[in-house]
Amino acid sequence: MGKTFKSGFVSIVGRPNVGKSTLMNMIIGQKIAIMSSKAQTTRNKIKTVYTEDDKGQIVFLDTPGINKAKNKLGDFMLEEAMGSMEEADVILWLVEPTTYIGKGEQSIAEKLGKKDVPVILVINKIDAFTPEDLAKAIDAYKDILDFIDIVPVSALRNKNRELLVDIIFRNLPEGPMYYDPETVTDETEREIVKELIREAALHKLDKEVPHGIAVVIDTMKVRPDGRIVDIEATIICERDSHKGIIIGKHGAMLKNIGTGARIEIEKLLEMKVNLKLWVKVRRDWRENLGDLKDYGYTR
């Protein structure tokens, strides 16, 4: 280790769909958080760990998009996002390169302004905008808060990753190594598998159905020879009509979701996966505190 080892917690906040999970996955160098273009993709606060032996350790807190809550699940997600700010040594506020600062962004700026935590403005998706547009966006945002730095990145194209990591380390306090250097997340494999199944469903389903689903892992067992893992999981939905859509004609949609999920789970576990999916209706589970607890949405 070098003379000073820096460590701390870095919260990634922003509105839905600005690329928070993509950014975190990019920095870590592997897929931990699920991604989709639909709102509410990230529901829980996810911790990932980035370690450089000679510099320090960053514990990232990926959070749900900050949005107005529409149900008890939404309340939980908002609490997760706001709670992560209380833990943070540095906050990354992720935005897109636009000159229009809407009510959602203004609300986040207001919340961040009340925190005694250094904030780095990270302008994402720069690969999709011209340098002129980026300059205008920086100009629009630079005075909204007292940022310690403004960093343009493309999480999708891996642009300016090293620059952002260096700036984060520069602003972290000296501290201990919280996790073993080999650790990349405190999420269990079971939790990540659950999310990968939900991600596959988000990609395959459209309209309102994805917002009303949860996934429960019923069983997950590696066979004695260690070459195949058998997984049985249930997709929870809120309506009988949704159940029909998820299953699809002759089971085609459910099979499609299962195939997409299995490919990603095999990459994660580095072994063959035998995945069986079921679908169950639990009416208005997003408003039921007992159901939310059962499906893993509790603080």
Written overview of the protein:
The protein is an alpha/beta fold. It has helices at residues 20-28, 72-87, 103-113, 131-141, 161-170, 189-204, 240-247, 252-269, 289-294; strands at residues 6-13, 46-52, 56-62, 90-95, 119-123, 149-152, 214-222, 228-237, 272-281. The strands form two sheets. Strands 2-3-1-4-5-6 form a six-stranded mixed β-sheet, with helices on both faces. A hairpin with a 3-residue loop joins β2 (46-52) and β3 (56-62). α6 packs antiparallel against α8 (252-269). The protein is globular, with a radius of gyration of 20 Å.
Termini distance?
35 Å
For this structure, the quaternary state is: single chain
Q: Which structural category fits the helices and strands?
A: alpha/beta
Largest sheet, strands/sense/barrel: 6 strands, mixed
Unreliable residue runs:
none
